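Final report, closing paragraph on structural work. Over the funding period we assembled a curated collection of sequence-structure pairs, and we close with a single example.
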Amino acid sequence: MKTGNETLNIQSVFYSPKIDRNVLSLDQLTLQGFTVRKSGDSCKIYPMFSSLVVNLKNEASGLTKEEELGLNEKRRLQDLSNEDDEFKEAYLNSYFETLNVSSEDDNDWNRLILKALEFHEFADCKALIDMLDDREYVFRYRVELQQKFDEMVRWFLNEYMGITSRPVPPYSPSQKKTDLLNLFILVA
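Its predicted structure, as stored:
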């Protein structure tokens, strides 16, 4: 979509040859991760978790300003994630070495089912969401469900919706990772 000097790509749109206008649904835009600011009889659309930018292409890189911001954000978050993962791994290894853990959990069918769950179609997403109705189950398998929920959202946005410009899960301006499972349960 072109507005003045800016170009904004909106994924998953329908082509209707008999309609002579572009029709945008506010709900669909927000589902795809856009923020819409209205002012009088006009509105401004820009990607969520982003500041307003002029989306011109950089001659050197061939990327738009939004694509460059997304790429830089992904790189920065990967670097932060690597540091966090190393710290977590060292901490957890030292913690579990002090415990007397049996291998009974290896035969826990619920954990095995969660580990085997993959996302290839929308019905797979629904299967995971249906599991979240049981609060006791969510409490017991929170870690596994949190990982699968992030994986599901990543698949839905990247593969199903074709949105790849932003990292999943999103981070707040203060560099805190958004806990999508908690957010979903709170909203549900």
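The chain has a mean pLDDT of 78. The beta strands are 2-3, 6-7, 34-39, 42-47. We thank the funder for supporting this effort.
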